[in-house]
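The following record pairs a protein chain with its ligand, 1,6-di-O-phosphono-alpha-D-glucopyranose.
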Amino acid sequence: MIHTIATTPFEGQKPGTSGLRKKVPVFQQRHYAENFIQSIFDSLEGFQGQTLVIGGDGRYYNAEVVQTVIRMAAANGFGRVMVGRNGLLSTPAASHLIRRHRAFGGIVLSASHNPGGPDGDFGIKYNAANGGPAPEKITDAIFAKTKSIASYKITDTPDVDLNSIGISKVGNMTVEVVDPVSDYAALMQQLFDFDQIRALIKSGFRMKFDAMGAITGPYGHAILEGILGFPAGTVMNGTPLPDFGGHHPDPNLVHAKELVDLVMPGGGPDFGAASDGDGDRNLIIGRGMYVTPSDSLAILAANATLTPGYAGGLSGIARSMPTSAAADRVAAKLGIPCYETPTGWKFFGNLLDAGMATICGEESFGTGSNHVREKDGLWAVLMWLNVLARRRQSVADIVKAHWREYGRNFYSRHDYEEVETDAANSVMKALRDQLSTLPGQHGIIAADDFAYDDPVDHSRTTAQGIRLMFEDGSRIVYRLSGTGTAGATLRVYIERYEPDASRHDIETQEALADLIALSRSIPDIARRTGRTAPSVIT
Ligand code: G16
């Protein structure tokens, strides 16, 4: 039976960079998740009888909310839901399922790389029929609905058994429980030359993949160890756990330390990779070589034609504004456009749909292509493996050869986490107030607040971060994170282009030292936030 439950709005249900993310206890309030889910449905039109894909990264509260989404989808008139077994789907696999099965859209339960567990973070995001994160016009509509919601619809049916693959009914709606990996694994085999990677493995090449106790464990086991034949044990932390086994599933040098310590010093595996909570981010390392996400994007783009899925070449490259300009140099050489978008994968959707870009990437450990409409951690790992199998060089040799050919974009991100919101806003205001006076000082030639005009739908997105551009091509960028759940996180991105190969081996923080000092002094971060140093440097 369908019930209409009276409710009142909650404050602050505003989707951020990627969906609504809050602490678990916030989501556990009575009606909280239901209000947001109903607001999603109320912002959409024409889904009666259609298919909705549902899954999540397995974090704490995933199992409960999956059942709520199923009941509410049935009550709101969806014809079918496709749910990953045990309620699990990685974000890229959900994107692929939506596309492959022509679903109306999907609901993905994840707070991505944020910690999980009873006191950790939870999140809900909506993906549209193209498989991509809902564009701003939908997220704005959802937020508007959350402010006036008065009731939601839900069935009183029991929990659906999600442990085994099969088909059942909730009211008139069909529930199809699907294997979370198989469709995705088939897609990867179309894009990459698995035989060539098998030959690489046969030659003694070894890797470690750290699933960080999160969603990519089953994908890594099935694809890397199962289909490709890497030895058992290649996948570390491969069982998805509600609290990620205490890991902070953010694949960077700080949180993937176990992997970094295994691979970087040498004497161990040739290649190391990690993915995040929901499987869309990636970390790539080799012996003695950390590949920055910005470099990884540039290198994959430059080598794309070595892989079957991209052998025909790229139509264009897209990167988020704070991502380094390394990819721009590759695009220039290939004679293809390079688009600069605001932070957030949703901004790549139109370019991909219109066939204007093939490969996209962000400094925040995201890389992907037109195969889905999300960034894709394992895709990046497999593409690296395919390139390594073709070039038969080490990760470090490939990266250094790239720098020799294109020059090196030294790059670092300094995060000031959990800063008081007022203090973080005052840093941004101080920068905005100086925009007209900074050019002419410190070698700065231009300063602006980044705005993006979408070349496809001509929408304009403003206030996307402060850019300070220097005469030698260096940049300092400031923006506030849109994914945090406590206080504000100030992100400062620092970049310097170095064409001289004899200077490519300088340590990154050293190479950027003068810019780093400026990045702190120009908006007087210490005085405004009380922080004399960032909390995380990547
Ligand atoms: C999300 C988005 C990414 C974006 C990142 C930035 O990543 O999907 O496109 O680059 O947030 O986050 P922030 O606003 O904190 O800098 P994810 O992996 O958390 O979904």
